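Exercise 7. Predict the joint structure of the components listed below.
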Amino acid sequence: MKFAIALHSPAHAPSSRRALLFAKAVLAQGHEIVRLFFYQDGVHSASGNVVSPQDESDTAAQWRDFVSTHKLDGVVCIAAALRRGVLNAEEAERYSRPAANLSAPWELSGLGQLHEAVQTADRLICFGGP
Amino acid sequence: MAKSLLIISRQAPWSGPDAREALDIALAGGAFDLPVAMLFMDDGVLQLATAQNASQVQQKDLSANLQALSMFGVEDLFACRTSLNQRGMPPTGLSVEPLQVLDDPQIAALIDRYDQVITI
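Solution:
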């Protein structure tokens, strides 16, 4: 089965970790993830600047590793990301901001990517809230 | 055939970007000519209140964007009657047209009818 996964919560929210565990289970069961779409506060789950205490799990880093390892299509909504200060190098330069905190494997793109995923996938699974 | 998408908008208009971001999904879907619908429930029905004065809270008025839904071809718009009742809002004269006000069993049937659902 083809899954699209939307995440609306930041890396420190348990729902971000749940989404990651779900995504891993999807692949472990032999299903396909057509796209991960990070929207709303979910853009923070893609930030490269999250620093977790040493004795806590680093969900943002785990997301990054997961997407890289499985060569998944990881899309971060550009409008939601700009609003929350999650910028790649190109956007940081465009808006004259001092730092970028988003890089590969993540890609900044628009809501059209969410709709395309909705059309492509058999199931859209959303994670948000606490 | 294109898959249908129901967006359930549950947050008040001035409680952060949630209402705006739910609406943006619907507008983007309309721009791509996809079968999208919006259901306003819980505090989301407050988005439908008329005579809001957004500038009082230094915000941009969301109702102009709501009006844009029909221009983008998004005309399947629903509101939860229970949520309206709980907030003392009448089921008519709300800021969005056309709007169908649904009872709880109708909402269950609505969610069942759509291929995919996003709740914000």
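Discussion. The interface with chain A takes residues 2-3, 5, 17-18, 21, 24-25, 28-29, 32, 34, 116-120 of chain B (CB under 8 Å).
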